[in-house]
Amino acid sequence: MTHLRRIDVAPGETLDDYAALAQLAAPVTELRNEARELVARLGDRTVWLVNSTARGGGVAEMLPPIVRMLRDLGVRAEWAAIGSPDPAFFVLTKHLHNLIHGVGEAELGSAERALFEWVNRANAEALAPLLRPGDVLVVHDPQPLPLACMLRQLVPLTTVWRCHIGVDLSNAATEAAWRFLDPYLDAYDRAVFSAPEYIPGTLAGRASVIRPAIDPLASKNRELPLRDTVEVLCNGGMIPCPGPTVSAPFSARVQRLGPDGMFAPADAESFGLLTRPIVTQISRWDRLKGFLPLMQAFARFRCSLGPSAAEPGTAARRLELTRLVLAGPNPDAVQDDPEAVEVLAELRSAYLRLSAAAQADIAVLSVPLHVPDQSALIINALQRASTIVVQNSLREGFGLTITEAMWKGVPVLSNSRACGPRQQIRDGIDGMLVRDPENELELEQALAAMLADPVRLATWGRAAQRRVYDDFLVFRQLREWGRLFLTIVPG
Ligand code: UDP
Fold this sequence. Notes:
There is one protein chain. By secondary structure, this protein is α/β, with parallel strands linked by helices. The protein has 18 helices and 15 strands. It has helices at 15-19, 25-42, 58-73, 88-100, 110-127, 147-152, 172-181, 226-235, 291-305, 315-321, 340-352, 356-360, 372-384, 400-407, 419-424, 440-451, 454-471, 474-488, and strands at residues 5-7, 46-51, 76-81, 136-140, 158-162, 190-193, 207-209, 255-257, 263-265, 278-282, 323-329, 362-367, 388-390, 412-415, 431-434. The strands form 2 sheets. The chain has an 8-stranded mixed beta sheet with strand order 9-8-12-11-10-13-14-15, with helices on both faces. Strands 1-3-2-4-5-6-7 form a 7-stranded mixed beta sheet, covered by helices on one side. α3 links the parallel β2 and β3 (76-81). α4 (88-100) packs across α7 (172-181). The two termini are 38 Å apart. It binds uridine-5'-diphosphate. Uridine-5'-diphosphate binds next to α3, β11, α13 and α14. Uridine-5'-diphosphate (UDP) binds next to α3, β11, α13 and α14.
């Protein structure tokens, strides 16, 4: 009755591998020094990380390196993902996700609660035999929230709820979400949020802030030399191959939305990834990611340039050549996001209404997810091929796509209305923040201003990389987790 899955985290890079890189040696040493006390405290307890999906989205992205590094430090760590035999569970949890972000119909009744608890109980029963008294259970996001209360009746545990989403406002939607979740919160020793603004009143005094982080050696983030970037773009199907490559084409390749409304191989015709200025947004197909206003703003931007044939080397030529890439996962692949197909359909309709010239300048890409390493390399290469990365989210818990781009020295355009982007981007220092992600004119002007000044873009790119190095790498995050565990795991 359950699809709880224990997810294998294969051995990968060791801390020694990270430390072998000149710029990562110091953060690894700091982590090792600080972890000694934690390793002694945890002894043979296992730290269980539980979420609701093995792939797709920021959480699934972050868990493998955390498990690997904890193990490398000498901590037992495991990852499990809950599942549901009934897809209605994920419709409900997606609704909850939106409500926590302040959006949606604030109606949640006893039928929803029954479904929420029924699915979680089945998962709790499957997880219970794997747990030993004293283990540490870290539950990620609302989907598996009831687990702590259900499991603590069976086995003594230290429990933490890690909520990756949140919004810095309170309205009927957020209140409905927190009312619904409230009965399950007491079973946690501590809750963790990505920003102080996200901590709901009911958890005041029982919550900490740990900002998310990225793994600099993950396939998504590791340095890609020029040849590798070109090879990934070829083998992933994003550019026509300029010549033979050593490695084979990927088993699934990127598809591009065509003027006939169908997805077809993206490399049938070059859209200029390696030569033109490229503005990219990569996200799940979620309405709150703001794909639609971005596409419309870009279409306006193109339109405002007119049909001129600008002189080579001029600012006008740079603007004229710029193309927009909107990329997201193949919607069939993300089981816990039933909204994706709908959002992509909306985007498709809007795309089909554009002029042929605007359609040629906008590439809507569907990125295959089923070979995670290939998918990560595709995203990595796409971010590196970008002049500017945009994250036009209306709401954003943190926005790992922002962190990933900044780490690659690519300046990000986002907005100050969403809380996540303003935790990361310092407007005018390492990127740009507009006020309103739905204001197409403001977006259009920001894009034009950024593209017009390549020297400033390069300065912002360097500052962006430094910012991630200082604040958003996985080593800093693990040290904060360690400090938190020391306050709640009995000595
Ligand atoms: N991502 C991906 N393929 C896609 C779209 C997104 O691998 O087609 C990744 C992206 O690189 C990032 C994560 O999914 O690592 C999204 O995390 P973020 O915090 O930006 O948003 P979330 O999906 O958690 O709301």
